[in-house]
Amino acid sequence: MPQVAFFDLVSHWRLDAPVPRVWQAITQTEHWPLWWPGVVAVKRLVDGDAQGVGRQQQLTFRTGLGYRLHLVLEVTEVLREERLRARAGGTLAGEGIWLMKQALPEAGGHTDVTFVWRVTLPPGILRWLAPVLAPLFRWNHKRVMRAGRFGLASYLAHSRH
Hints:
Elements: E1 6-15, H1 19-27, H2 32-35, E2 39-46, E3 56-62, E4 68-79, E5 83-90, E6 93-102, E7 111-120, H3 125-158
Antiparallel strand pairs: 1-7, 2-3, 3-4, 4-5, 5-6, 6-7
């Protein structure tokens, strides 16, 4: 029986911007290559409804391990300025959810973003080596997400869209 390798990956971003600006930056995936160093390309495949549910896009990520991830993301749930859920297929399969919360003004008015991502490795050698390579996969994910956090913070500080 083949081994199934699930990875639950969680990232927290604290951004010095209000939720509407953070939401706009995160939902405008075509602009990710402008601020996220790990994102090489984004191509919209399907528009989806007025909220964005059903939107599909193809993304290519550059990793710190010398390979590229090719994903097709489909938005499956949108609760504007609060929650965005997507299903992924491609190099990895899984589901991710972005959660956003505005801090109270007395706490600095920043936006807290949590991204939870559950992925499954494709059948083959990576899946079989997953127990040994798990720390390396987690390090790689943290590296890509940290670059995204720093890139988005800089983008928000220098843009007023």
